[in-house]
Task: structure prediction
Amino acid sequence: MSNRRSFFTKASALTASLFTGKAALSAQTNPAPVPVTTLDVADLPFTMDSGTKVFNLIAEPVKQTVIPGRTLDLWGFNGSAPGPTIQANEGDRVRIIFDNHLPEATGIHWHGLELPIAMDGVPGVGQDLVQPGGRFVYEFTLHQNGTFFYHPHMAMQEMVGLLGGFIIHPKTAYTPLVDKDFLIALQEYAVLPNTTIPNSMAMEFNWLTFNGKAGPSTTPLVVQQGERIRVRFINMGMDHHPIHLHGFTFWETGREGARQQETAWTRGNTTLVGVAQARDIEFIADRIGDWMLHCHLPHHMMNQMVPSVGPMTRTNPSKVPLYPQDAFMEGPMMAMDHEVDKPETHGLPAGWSGFSGGMMTLLRVMPPEKYNEIAALIAAKKAGAR
Result:
């Protein structure tokens, strides 16, 4: 009898595995939420002090290479712009020791977090300014979950790079479960060709970035066919960005401050990420290919667009009827495949980089054997960097 019962138990499990996806199968083990990956940006490490997670955050001038050969003088956190991503869990007590290494006073606002007023980070209202060389300790308990971010509450400082993601994972993983979870920070800068310093008062922008990189220098999102994917966007700038994904129709599942109830999810292939907003999208990566993910504002798919010099880079103006309006910004002469080569770009068609600029990246959906090949290259690169 026990053998008969064992047979039917195994048969039922096998049948279930044939009709259940990867994330649904994982649900049977009640896993913790998947860590968020911020490509091209590090996570902020922490230590533990009597049950409190302690983070050290430093605001400082940074040099940020947005594409090979173009390095901007920005303000950032812990060596990068955007700054490192903070990841914590709902219910955590966190202490963030903030040091100001900027040449002017500032403070840090925790965008979307419900906190005591003394921790909200607004100078002159909830706290005193943190002077150059000064320190302020923020400490609070996280009772929310979702996609948040941090930035100074000083308008001009926001326009020169001071932004970072703050992810609060739920106590119980969201359902449906995802296999991979990405964060992309949207930023924009106005930088004339003969300088490296952004004009924080400008209303037009010529360097548009995903996680501090402009296409084709952005790192592609590499996923395996059949995985459920979440991509989170945060935006701190002067423009709203209609983010469009080729090849898939997604659900918009979250906004700044909270995951939405499933009845409020909206279906689409473009989500508008407004200024000071966050958006979370989810989809099943069931179609193999190298799919574009980009802002659909035309000028935001270009690099170095400035009215003073025009967009023309190589085309004879006499051959373009509506120059400069019809001047194209994509093509073989813009390619820099070798300069932006990395494991995540392995196997892309020759010249692919000539057709990527600004807020553009790729979602690379691969069959298992190809995915494993790229994963091995990524692992080898990380091992070599240690």
Summary: The two ends are 56 Å apart (CA to CA). Residues 4-21, 308-315, 323-328 have pLDDT under 50 and may be disordered.
